[in-house]
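Late entry, evening session. Most of the bench is empty. Finally got around to the prediction I had been postponing all week. Sequence below, unchanged from the version circulated by S.P.
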Amino acid sequence: GVSGSAIRIAELLDLVNSPDREPRQATEDNVHAMYCRELDVVTPTGVRLVDSLSFTVSKGENLMLTGANGCGKTSILRTLKGLWCPASGTAGFPRETVFVPQSPYCPTGSLQDQLSYPDILEPPMSADELQKHLSKVNLGHLVDKELNDPSSDWNLLSLAEKQLLGVARVLFKRPNFAVFDEATSALDAEI
């Protein structure tokens, strides 16, 4: 209920304002690989999930984290991204890395804004160019639906369409590193 939510918010504020809280580590421009070194992952409530994780992923290499639900895969990514402070160890990634969650965020804005998020493109893309990018992931039909109105509610897209949009963003930006956190879980195998 409401009291349980209030208690959880108070616990979160206590954690955030704790004098023992380590500051987030900033990723430096000269980092050319994604890495974890002796990383211990602990939830904000103190539950230890991962001990002494070490890996390096260089440009052109792939890494897939697998495991049962709740074992800490997403928590590792939260720590890598700097959303959670590591209990110990270090983690980093190049600045141009794109993180794609299970349900990509869709801000208010045009269809072009959805493709380029979080960047804003000026001047606007032509409908043909937008069609070209979105057709790569079977979303070209969105251009035809005149959903390019800046006030369109993109949260009406299905989870599968949002996930395809997340993939389209990666293909559009062409980063050296992309991290997918169950970002294709709602897609059919043939896609």
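Two things to note before I forget:
The mean pLDDT is 85.
Helices lie at 2-16, 73-81, 111-116, 127-135, 141-144, 159-173.
Will write this up properly tomorrow.
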